[in-house]
Amino acid sequence: MLVVVTGGSGSGKSAFAEDRVLSFGESRRIYIATMQAFDEESHCRIRRHRRMRSGKGFETIERYTELDELILPKNCVVLLECMSNLVANEMFREDGFHPEVSEKITEGVRNLLSQAEHVVIVTNEIFSDGILYEGESEKYKEQLGQINCNLAEMADAVVEVVYGIPVWHKGGEKA
After folding, report:
1. Which of 26, 45, 151, 175 has the most CB atoms within 10 Å of its CB?
2. For residues 68 and 96, what is the distance between their CA atoms, to the nearest angstrom?
3. Is the peptide bond before 82 cis (omega within 30 degrees of 0)?
């Protein structure tokens, strides 16, 4: 099963996604962390997320790129957080800018699904700010948007967390 969790910054999507993983029972829980710490703000965010996961039985795998090559324990439950960081990592690599990553990342998700019993993916809703960006930033938004569409098509459930309230768009607990 694939569950996609989206929402704006600070919406509660991470807590919701963790609760979703816990709802799948006592399976082996793998947290795929995609955020690279570059500054104090990112270090603080990572520490906060580690505290949130503490005591919940997650094993953390730091994976910044190449999901398609990741080998997981069979029948585990995966929480990937977050797709937005993964897209940036794949696009803005040390060897230069890679503008077309949607197919590669989608294949990486298929790789996770082929190994895990359940996969929960957190992604960000960054498309409502009304600002037109240029160049690489606009390409980033385009690629993340395409990946989010691919994920929604593949997913069994898609939920947007708004102010801590889950709004189901596909599958799940529709009101």
Report:
1. 151
2. 20
3. yes
Number of H helices, E strands in the chain: 5, 9
Task: Compute the distance between CA of residue 78 and CA of residue 125 in angstroms, rounded to an integer.
Answer: 21
Select from 66, 145, 137 the least CA-distant residue to 104.
66
pLDDT in tens, 35-66: 887 778 867 877 877 787 778 899 999 999 99
Is 175 domain-assigned?
A: no
**pTM (2 decimals)?**
0.91
| Distance (Å, whole) CA 76 – CA 26 | 10
Considering 43, 49, 98, 169, which one is annotated as catalytic?
49
Q: Note if 118 is an active site residue.
A: no
Structural domain that includes position 78: 2-170
Amino acid at position 158, single letter:
V
Q: Give dist(CA 94, CA 168) in Å, integer.
A: 38
Inside any domain, residue 133? yes
Model pLDDT for residues 1-31, shown as the tens digit of each residue: 999 999 998 899 999 999 999 999 999 999 9
